[in-house]
Design goal:
Strand content: 35-45%
CATH topology of one domain: Immunoglobulin-like
Largest sheet: 4 strands, antiparallel
Radius of gyration: 23 Å
Number of strands: 35
Structural class: mainly beta
Oligomer: single chain
Strand order of the largest sheet: 1-2-3-4
Shape: globular
CATH class of one domain: Mainly Beta
Distance between the termini: 57 Å
Length: 526
């Protein structure tokens, strides 16, 4: 039956996929790196989290929930910083079997790294409220390592002896004056429902070290349906571990107390030459078969970056050959990145990514779309890939920096829930598409957020002067840097513009005071 449905589904997808995408974050400045989860006891209850700008608080973690499958959403709430002036990043979430929801993220001094930690909060009401922040990994736990970057959370919901155990993995931050080799992937564990966490430990070990060359060996964690923790991480240690790069798996059946290592891959083709590409990889586990796992990553052996995966049917002990997923012509120079994937509960598989096949040239800066492909459990091939975004989105310089490195996909009851960052409005915003691949349904609903008053700054980015739209120039103003320090102010914004040539490179905010109303916008000094 799945073979028949796959044909019918593709026809439905082609017919319905181009309904209008809608902005689900609806912010005015920056909304990035979305994460989406579905309550295992109620498929109509969705929770979204993302990095969002909050006036006076820099980047915070924001969340919203839906009780009707995404038709309507709660007003977003944001998590306060642990220390005034901090920033937040890298949110992920996971449910346990009892519908307790856990959220991990970084809160840190994003300028000087004087403080920082990975925190976990718990919600017992589906994201309506969140408990106190519990420290999982601190910057002080790893001197000269800064081991708090890219935390990913995985929760055991197997019903076995480790049911409810929470795993948080991380890696070294990209701070060459603060983080020194050798580099490592890290793991912290909670066995008391998130009330406390173990001190972070290395996931790598003798003969399986990540090494001193890969500065950020990001681990991707899972917990299989029979309660086995696994995390895959990259390695290149040619002196002691051979001339090739490796992908290693750290594996534990004892809640992280004891860890075994497996060599998942050794060979060429793991290096991505274009530094702009968002090359984060992801490991996923088949809920219908605990021995079936799959790993999704970028590879450019055909001359450009493509979406690849490899899978194992014996819990990572052996792997089938790597396969290319995107179906544009091989070696056409078009770049793909930003991959994410998910298994349905019956073993079907959905994979989505950012695609440039319809751009004019072959650079990172081409127009982009979001593409997906499906593989049914009883099939050996993926469906024809298809676009789920309704327009080609022009490149924006913000996509070249950090803070937009991941999208997120859930696959449940033959329905894809995909969220991604998009710059079609001129600012980074989050869009969601909900696609019923068997019945052709395709709907996107707004996660409402009150938009802050906004005005236009130009040119943006700038190296010399800035101007604003004329109807704001009679109002008083101030300009602050990213951490809120005032740079200049005045009673009237000059029509001739303001010189920022002596400003340090970075992000700045302009506040315009219109009576009792405050309007805010941002610009980049290069």
């Amino acid at each position: 039956m799945k073979i028949f449905f796959s044909i019918v589904s593709f026809l439905f997808i082609q017919s319905y996929i181009y309904s209008q995408n809608q902005n689900i974050s609806n912010g005015s400045y920056f909304d990035g790196e979305p994460f989406l989860v579905i309550d295992p006891s109620n498929s109509q209850h969705l929770v979204a989290a993302w990095m969002g700008f909050q006036i006076g608080n820099k980047i915070t973690i924001k969340t919203s929930y839906s009780n009707n499958g995404g038709v309507s959403w709660s007003t977003p709430i944001w998590q306060p910083h642990q220390i005034t002036g901090n920033g937040s990043a890298d949110v992920s979430m996971g449910y346990d079997l009892n519908s307790n929801l856990y959220m991990s993220y970084i809160d840190f001094d994003d300028v000087n790294f004087s403080n920082g930690a990975i925190y976990v909060r718990k919600s017992i009401d589906g994201g309506a409220t969140w408990g106190s922040a519990v420290e999982a990994t601190s910057i002080n736990d790893c001197p000269n390592q800064v081991c708090i970057d890219r935390p990913w959370i995985a929760v055991d919901k197997s019903g076995g002896i480790n049911d409810g155990v929470i795993y948080v993995t991380s890696m070294n931050a990209d701070q060459p004056t603060l983080a020194f080799p050798p580099y490592h992937p890290y793991l912290s564990v909670s066995t008391d429902n998130g009330m406390s966490f173990s001190n972070p430990r290395y996931l790598d070990t003798l003969n399986f070290y990540s090494g001193s060359i890969i500065k950020q060996p990001m681990p991707s964690p899972i917990v299989t349906s029979n309660g086995v923790f696994m995390a895959i991480y990259p390695s290149y240690e040619p002196v002691n571990q051979g001339p090739f790069a490796h992908l290693y798996i750290a594996k534990s059946t004892s809640a992280g107390e004891n860890i075994d290592q497996l060599d998942a891959y050794s060979g060429v083709g793991t290096t991505i030459s274009n530094s702009y590409l968002k090359k984060g990889s992801v490991l996923k586990s088949d809920p219908s078969d605990p021995n079936h796992i799959a790993y999704f990553f970028l590879k450019e052996t055909s001359g450009d970056a493509d979406i690849y995966f490899m899978e194992s049917f014996d819990a990572g002990n052996s792997w089938l050959s790597q396969e290319r997923i995107n179906q544009d012509p091989i070696g056409n120079g078009k770049l793909q990145d930003l991959v994410w994937a998910d298994f349905d509960i019956d073993g079907d598989l959905a994979v989505c990514w950012r695609d440039r096949r319809n751009g004019i040239g072959n650079t990172y800066q081409e127009t982009t779309e979001i593409y997906c492909a499906i593989r049914w459990k009883d099939s050996i091939n993926f469906s024809p890939d298809f676009a789920i975004s309704d327009t080609q989105v022009a490149h924006d310089v913000i996509l070249e920096g950090k803070g937009n490195d991941f999208m997120n996909v859930n696959f449940l009851n033959d329905t894809i829930y995909a969220v991604w960052g998009d710059v079609r409005t001129g600012v980074l915003s989050i869009y969601m598409n909900k696609i019923g691949v068997n019945n052709g349904s395709n709907s996107i609903h707004l996660i409402s957020e009150e938009a802050l008053p906004y005005f236009t700054i130009y040119p943006n980015p700038t190296t010399d002067k800035i101007y604003i739209n004329e109807n704001q120039t009679n109002d008083s103003y101030k300009i602050t840097n990213e951490i809120g320090q005032q740079i200049i102010s005045g009673e009237q914004f000059p029509e001739a513009g303001i010189s920022v040539s002596k400003f340090k490179n970075g992000v700045y905010y302009i506040y315009i005071y219109c009576g009792k109303q405050i309007k805010v916008s941002t610009f980049i000094k290069e």
